[in-house]
Specification:
Helix content is 23%, strand content 29%. By secondary structure, it is an alpha+beta fold.
Amino acid sequence: MFGVVFPNRSFPMDISTFAQIDTFHWVLDMNTFVGEAYDQVRDLCIFLLNGFTLPPEKALAVYIQSPGSPFVFCGAVTVARPSAVLTLSWPEPGAPGPLQLTADAQPLSAKIGVSVEDLASLPSLDVAAETRIERLAMKVGENLFNFMQSFCGVDGSKLVVPMDILNRWFQKFQEKAKRDPEYLKGFAL
């Protein structure tokens, strides 16, 4: 049905490496693969095997789980997108999350879950891109806040900034980006 590769860490592995929970769910215990160093595994390539036909309205969704945390969605593959390299942003151990894929209350090891699901019920298939955009926006916002803070005055319980502060920040931001092509790369993670 599917295979996975951990870039720079493994050879291709097929579905037999995963424990089958039921007809539509599989789990890979990362303890058997890398022990407690699961958080050093940053990427996963998942692909549909030749000859496997997934209905067009279905997807193979990939989830990750740190010890003591619920599963978190990472991305998916479909017939139209038969392979994907997914970034594994492991949740903090014990952190609350949106989905519990198994009945384990407090798992002792990290896990990767794969599930056949309705495509329409899944969030965006490119979670890593959304995360990068969110981090970029946060860093740009932080840069603006720090710039504004250096020009602030205090009026009672309010911070007061000059009216043209946004224009001044944006001009400075653009000038730095033109002078130093590496400047904007510093905002990306």
